[in-house]
Write a structure and sequence with these properties.
Elements (H helix, E strand, L loop, with lengths): L4 E4 L5 H8 L10 E5 L24 E5 L3 H4 L5 H10 L9 H9 L4 H7 L3 H4 L16 H35 L4 H14 L3 H19 L7 H34 L6 H33 L3
Parallel strand pairs: 1-2, 2-3
Helix pairs in contact: 7-9, 7-11, 8-11, 9-10, 10-11
Amino acid sequence: MCRAVAEVVPGKHRWPTHLLATRGQGLCTKPAILVDSDLAFESNERKKPTSLPDHDPSVVDAFVSHPTRKPSITEDNEDLIEATLREVELHEPLVTARTVYELFRSARTGKDGRAALRKPGDLLPSSANMPCEDRGGAAMMIGMSDAFEILALVCTGLYAGYMLAFLSGVMPALKEVDDASFTLVMRMVNRKVPGPFFLLLFLGSLGFPAVSFFVAPEARDGSGATLVGIAAVCASVGHLITSGGNVPLNNALKSSRDQGDERAARAAFEGRWNALHGARTLFAVAAFVLVAVALPR
C-alpha cells in the first residue's frame, strides 16, 4: 500500500495533488497534503486548498500548518526542538509554538537554524498527530528539492566551463589562424557541438534551476530561493543570446561556404560572435555561482 505526504505551499499544490490522487488513477491510496496557512499567529482561519473538492475525500485530505510547519509541530515536541536549536547555538529559554514562530521570523536563525529544522526524522510530530503512516514521505518534496539543486549545480557548472573553454582557449587560438582555416574549423565546430551532451547541458542549465525554484520552497530560506530564481533568469538570458545571436551567425557562416570569400565570411562572423559569446558566458558563470551559493541554504 502506497501512502505519502506531499508538503506544498499555497498556490503550488495542484500538480502534486493531481499526480498522487487523480480519481481512478492515483499513485497512492492515502496521500495527505501539508500546507502552511501563512497567516498571522493570532488568526483562527484555516483554509484548505481550493482544489481539494476535485478529489475523493476518502482518498486525499489536507492538513493546515499554522502559521507554518515549524511552530505547528512544536506541541508535544518541545524537547526535541530545544535540543536541535541548542545544536546550532540558538538558545530559546521557553520553547513554545509562539516563541518558535517569533524565532523563525527573526534573523537569529540564519541558514544553520533553518537547516536544523529541515530534518524531518528529528522533528516529526508524535505518531498521534501524524496524518499519514509513512513518515518518510514527509521528506519527499524536500528530497526532490535537494536533488534538483544538485542537478542544477552540475549542469550550470559544466555549461559554464564549456563556455569558458571557448572564451579563454578555443577562440583566442583560432584568432591566430588564416581565414580559410578559421571558417573551416568554426563550421565543423558548429556542426558537431549541438550533440546530446551539449543539449543536455544547455537544457539542464536552465531547466533544473527553474524546477528547483518551484519545488519545495519551504526547504530553503528566502534568500536561497531568490538566488535560485535569479540563476534561472541568468540562464534564460544566456540562452536567449545563444538562440537570437550566436545561432543565426552560425547559420550565416554555414551559408557563406559557397560564396568563396572566406575573408568576408570571417569578418562578418568573428567579432560579433565573440562579443555575444562573452556575454552569454558571463550569464552562464553567474547562474552557476548563484546556484552554488544557494545550495547550502
